[in-house]
Amino acid sequence: MIKEFKEFISRGNVIDLAVGVIIGGAFTSIVKSLVDYLINPFIGLFIGGIDFSDLIFKVNGATFKVGSFINAVINFLIIAFVVFLLVKFVNKFLIRKKAEEAAPVVAPEVELLEEIRDLLKTQEK
Question: pLDDT in tens for each of the 125 residues of the chain?
């Protein structure tokens, strides 16, 4: 059993997953601070710093904090949009980098055949 666990833990997928979770946690705190300290105050300049956290209603002694839920939804949408923009930027950078790296290598035979084809086309006209 210990041997199986050691094999399981030593697999690359498990280690990659663990690294992903750790990096994801760190990335979450970065995005949350970006949203809390930069984006929300900037949006607050335009909408007057609206805070829904005081919006509640009570039914038979039960308190429903609808405003806090609305604030959480707004923060989620902002964070999701920021992550979308970051992923889009990173993907654009990676695609450009891959395109530069993957310049097509043409075999000399193919290049020669293309030249012959082009010469034949010019002779037909």
Answer: 888 877 776 776 777 777 788 888 888 888 778 777 887 777 777 777 666 777 888 998 898 988 888 878 887 888 788 778 888 888 887 777 666 666 677 788 888 888 888 888 888 76
Structure tokens at 25: 């946690």
Residue pair 82/34 in contact (Cβ under 8 Å)? The answer is yes
Burial group, residue 86, by CB count within 10 angstroms (0-12, 13-18, 19+): middle
87: tokens are 């992923």
> Residue 65: how many CB atoms within 10 A of its CB?
15
Phi and psi, residue 8, nearest 5°: -60, -45
List residues bridging with 116 in a β-sheet.
none
C-alpha distances in Å from residue 95, one per residue of 20, 29, 92: 21, 27, 5
| Domain regions of the chain by residue span | 1-50, 51-125
